[in-house]
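Help! Submission page says 'invalid entity' but I think these are all valid:
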Amino acid sequence: MLAQVTSEELILQSARQELARTGILGLRVASVAEGAHCSITNIYRYFGDRDGLLARVLGDMYEEFTAAAVATFMARLNDRKNLTVRDIARALPFPTTESEMKIQAFRMQILATSTENQRLCDRLKKISTMRATVWQESFAELDSKMAPGERYDRRVFRVMLANFAPYYNSLLGDMQVTAEEFYEFMEDKLRLK
Amino acid sequence: MLAQVTSEELILQSARQELARTGILGLRVASVAEGAHCSITNIYRYFGDRDGLLARVLGDMYEEFTAAAVATFMARLNDRKNLTVRDIARALPFPTTESEMKIQAFRMQILATSTENQRLCDRLKKISTMRATVWQESFAELDSKMAPGERYDRRVFRVMLANFAPYYNSLLGDMQVTAEEFYEFMEDKLRLK
């Protein structure tokens, strides 16, 4: 038996395809409707207007990006015991590949859109608060696995990494921070003596 | 004798007024022309197209924001001698007021625009490289003024603060990093022992 796909889900899938094709600015509700084989009226029934549709789709994607970040970080440390501060530093994400930088650029676009789309902003606030709680739970798990004498400073995550925007680094060309520099620095700043 | 204002300058002034009124997405070249008392053709002659106009105006503003950041930081330390690491930490910008957060949101919009406007991206790259050099010169000046035994870690600026996006923090509501937490953390991480 095939799972029933609702028209709401079809609209959301079509909106993502359109976003990949045209970007946020170029997204046309008519094209989303066409891709979902539904009417524009139908889209408005579910999402109110174009901003409401964007709030939902971009919010969903932002939720996925931020969930993936903590999951990837924890997965890198999961089956280890006697964790060191170095292990934790090296498990941090530091985007360098073109596809990783594309995601960073898209995150920047979502954030910028949220400055002019109140519903998206409200959604990002909910996600951010929820994500902060997930990070705290992850730290509790890490704490129980640290090797004797190895202690890290949680504030580095809270104050620094939570506000880290690697897109800036990509603007620095030859002068940009390298992955090696980033990891050495993070290990040093994470370590509590 | 009054200074001669070129039509290019009038267009740039009008574009800034329009940006303040409508935001980046809403900017219409026709309105900029109206405000500058010139023709749309005239704007295209100077800037090529709407993206070219945005690349110039947003680039100029980004240059001003980043210049102001280093100038404000240095001005806070300028007439002091025997600088401590604490002085340096406390001179860092940490936006909290509504008007400061508005500038942060606008910076985010400029960065997002640069992901789809190659000329703006090229301009931001030039500005970022130039600004990194100005920061290095400022550090040389600070180094000559440090109190005996007080040493700070330049990498904190290069790796962390250069990639710092306080807009994220504004999404955290009650959970956000406070100014006091930020300054204590920065003092701790800046200090070289």
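Support: the input was valid. A stray whitespace character was the problem, and the output above is from the cleaned input. The CA atoms of residues 27 and 107 of chain A lie 16 Å apart.
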